[in-house]
Every structure is written in C-alpha cells, then in structure tokens.
Amino acid sequence: MTSITRVHNRVSTSQGHPWSAKADRLQSATGIMLGGFLLLHMHFESSILLGKEAFYRVVQLLEGGMFSSTGHGFPIVTKVFSVFMLLVVIVHAAVALRRFPAQLGQWRALRLHMGSINHKDTHAWFWQLITGFILFFLVPVHLFTMILNPEIGPHLSAERVYHDNAWLLYVLLLPAVVVHAMIGLYRVAVKWGITTKRSGLRKVAKVLIIYLLCLGTASLVSYLFIGSELGIPVQPFVPE
Fold first, then answer.
1. N or C end of the chain, less CB within 10 A?
2. 162-189: per-residue pLDDT in tens?
3. Which residues are annotated as a binding site?
C-alpha cells in the first residue's frame, strides 16, 4: 500500500467519526472568520493610500474613538482583538493539522500523485498545505507584535515597517496569507455545496488573489516611503 493510499484511507476512516464531522465544521467556520477578517483588514490597511489622515481616521474609528472625549481611539481594542484572532488561528490550525501529511514519504507520494493527474482542486489543496505551513510560523509573530505593541497610526505603523524592518515579515506573509485564505474560502464554498460552479469560482478566487496582492503591495510600499521620511524618535501622526 502506497503512502498516498494510506493517507486517503486514514482520512476516510476519520471522516466517519463524529469528532471528524465537528472538526470539519469548526475548521470551515474559523476559516471563514479568518478569510473575512483578511478581506476587511487589507482594505482598512489600504486606506493609507488615501493619505495619512485617512488612515488615522480609520484607526480611530476601529479603536472606538467615538467613545472618547478626545476622539482618540483605545489601543487596548487592538490588543484584545489581536488576542482573539490568535485564539481563532490556533483553533483553525489545530483542526487543520489532522489533514497534514506527517511523513516525508506521504509528501513524496502526494507530489507523485499530483504529477500523474491534472486535478485543479488537488493542486489548490497542495498550495493551501504549503502556505498553511508557512503561516504557522509567520502569523503568530505578526499577532504577538500587535499584542505587545498595539499602537498603530500612519507614523507608528510606518516605523514598524521601515525602521523595525517588519517589511521582511510582510513580504513573506502577504502572498502566503492571501493565497491560503482565498483558496480556503473557495474550498469551503465547494465543500458545503454553496455553489457547484467550480470553474467560475476558481476564476473569482484567482482575481481576488491578484487584486489583494496588488492592494497589499501598494500599501506596504506606501508605509516604506512614509517610514523613510521619518526621523528618530518617531512622533505619532497628529492631523492638522
């Protein structure tokens, strides 16, 4: 019996177990939460493309500035939300790991299996495995950074990206998280019968991947330009 056959048999056997069905639902639910959050997060971040003040206003709104007498938001909101998202990521990763090939032989068998067939969903699943492995290391670093230092703003975020060299993290994180999330949302839609038009949905996922990569890259470049113009120590941005 080949390694890939053993993997398929192991998965098929586990699917009949009540816990497996619950784990599938939990994985899909947390995946939808994380994918939806990514879409919102990248658009909020991209408000920097409209200028420093636009980004500042978005930050104050998200941090509950309307409940402050000064209009300034509460960084604790970012800290608490980052902790919550970290917990969601942990749960999602925990239930997803049961699908992960655990042995080198299984990886080789999977690659051989993919080379012998032209099944687009199998290839998509493979790339989701690869990006999921990468995100296992990168996402906690990003979230822990936000938990330990929740202050964000046009200057403070640019300082983190440029002066603290966080761009090195984001250059790797951006493509991995976008590809993983969009393929994940596609697979959830197919798995739970939301649509049967796989070809059309794959095209939508590809368009979203290209769009989000362009949006994220443009935002990252903007932070780099802003950061390069800031002196040390960096002063928080204050609108005129």
1. C
2. 999 999 999 999 999 999 999 999 999 9
3. 41, 92, 142, 180
How far apart (Å, rounded) are the C-alpha atoms in residues 233 and 85? Answer: 30
Tell me the DSSP string of 104-145.
Answer: HHHHHHHHHHHHH---HHHHHHHHHHHHHHHHHHHHHHHHHH
| Exposure string over 11-46, b if 16+ CB within 10 A, otherwise e | eeeeeeeeebeebbebbbebbbbbbeebeeebeebb
- 129-143 residues labelled b (16+ CB within 10 A) or e (exposed): bebbebbeebbeebb
Q: Are the CB atoms for 232 and 194 separated by under 8 Å?
A: no
What would the pLDDT profile of 127-158 be if each residue is shown by its tens digit? 888 899 999 999 999 999 999 999 999 999 99
Q: What are phi and psi of 233, to 5 degrees?
A: -75, 150
Binding-site entries for heme b? 41, 92, 142, 180
**What is the pTM (predicted TM-score) of this model?**
0.85
| DSSP per-residue codes, 38-93 | HHHHHHHHGGGGG-HHHHHHHHHHHTTGGGSSSS---HHHHHHHHHHHHHHHHHHH
In angstroms, the CA 59 to CA 45 distance is 9
Q: How far apart are CA 169 and CA 191, in angstroms?
A: 32
Mean pLDDT of 185-202: 87
Rounded to an integer, what is the distance from CA 98 to the centroid of its chain? 20
